[in-house]
Design goal:
The protein has 413 residues and is α/β, with parallel strands linked by helices. It has 15 helices and 12 strands. Helix 5 packs parallel to helix 6 and helix 6 packs across helix 7.
Length: 413
Amino acid sequence: MDLTDASSVPVREIPRGQPYEEARRATEGRRFSAGIWYFIWPLGDRFSRGVSPEAVPLEVAVEFLYRIGVKGVSFHYPGEFGPQNEATIAGLLRERGMHVTSIAANVFSDPVFRYGGPASHIEAVRELATRLKIEAQQLCVKYGAAFQTDWAGRDGFELYFLYDPVEQWDWTRENYVRMLRAVNGAAGIAIEFKPYDAPEHAVIKTVEDALEMCQQVERQIRDEVVAEVRASLGSEVPTSEFASEVARRTAPYEGVMGVNIEDAHVYLEGRKVSEAVRKTLASGRLFLRHNNDSEGRIDNDLLFGSVHFWDALESALLLRQAGWDGIIEPDIFPQRDDPLKAFVASLNSVNFFDALARKLLEGEGPERLRELQQRKRPSEALDWLQRVVASGVEYPRIDLALVDQFRRELRLA
């Protein structure tokens, strides 16, 4: 079965317009990226195939991102990126000085994956899913992406007596190993954990699961390399030579497994994004941020900070304190909003919370933070934080009116 034969999203050439310099001042110096899917699809759900009437063609979305200074774009393969449109998309990006952030295998949309992809109980489906993931991994290498974002989609379990979660975990780990070895570690993997949805229980539910999987994958690759070196050099080889060869062969796989934190997924667990940020920073495995929000009941990808204000601020503070310079890719699902405006609002929100975090670190701020952390007095912490927020902050932002201007210029309004 070759799912890549399915028709890719139609894409056409489009003239490059003039950038919006005022918008670019808000994105300059930030590694902002966008998932192309939330601009171009009608964003349906279980109750409707399409809700958003304001979706735009793929090439229009790329042009919009170019004009506001967002250089990174992520895709799914097959679907938004495939054999029929690859050359055109590559040309659109190249002409605009843009790049691919990730090309993630779509192993959840086709009915063949109704029982999951890499963790399906059907061996042929597992092999199909792994082949697609390897092909996506090779595309990531081809277009210079540092990693493939990996959300498990339908991989998981529910009810009783029907599934073996340990077996599913092992299949998932083996899939990651094969993906990395297929490209000799030239592109990594950013695991996007999620507790449930579509299945009641996902294989990789939590940040702890994701970090454990990262370690297991790299350990398995090392074990495989050790066995291969032993087989090729023989048992009589000097220890130093053996160790040197193992180090040489494992070097491309060091630090290639990481984590993508999507905020809404954390809130589905009833937990805090700031906790996940701390743990991934401590392990050196925070590859990507999917900034968004939710009330914690459904994965509706609301605008960053629109529900969990203080968690968004603490997360921003942690990233600034750590000097983290990773990729920020708001992941939104604007069913009842203009997707272009929703994305701009997301960027503005990221900049807003970063500016607030910077303000917390000004002057006596660091000392005050240490004092509050020692005293553990919620009233004192809230009082100080509210006074900092109430004093106001300047931050780079994009006027939403630019979206209306863009739609008029491209005759989309």
